[in-house]
Design a protein that fits this description.
Elements: E1 3-8, H1 13-24, E2 28-33, H2 41-47, H3 62-66, H4 76-85, E3 94-97, E4 100-103
Parallel strand pairs: 1-2
Antiparallel strand pairs: 1-3, 3-4
Length: 108
């Protein structure tokens, strides 16, 4: 049986929808709390596309607003530093399916 890893936050509605979908299609998953157990720097460096940083940021998060990231241009390294300091900046859920990695979830 196929098994994936889901970095999630229990209060995140999008994370719940993703987990509900995985359950519905009978894909088992291991859950990791993205705040208590954030992905390591190496993972973020490998999977965040420097050409499209916005696709990896949780724009609904409090730190996004507080840091004024909508108006700032940051480098990939700076963004990863901020994400490791406050994992709420990371777009969630992160779904790892073998070698494929998905940031966020959109219902079909």
């Amino acid at each position: 049986m196929r098994k994936v890893v889901v970095y999630q936050k229990s209060t995140c509605g999008t994370c719940r929808k993703a987990k509900d979908y995985l359950t519905k299609v009978k894909i088992s998953f291991d859950e990791l709390d993205i705040v208590k157990n954030p992905p390591p720097r190496e993972f973020l460096e490998k999977n965040i596309d420097e050409e499209n940083l916005d696709a990896f940021i949780n724009k609904h998060s409090k730190p996004y607003r507080e840091l004024g990231l909508a108006q700032k241009k940051v480098t990939k390294a700076e963004l990863i530093d901020m994400m490791l300091e406050d994992p709420n900046l990371i777009k969630r859920p992160i779904i790892i399916d073998g070698k494929k990695v998905y940031f966020g979830y959109n219902e079909i």
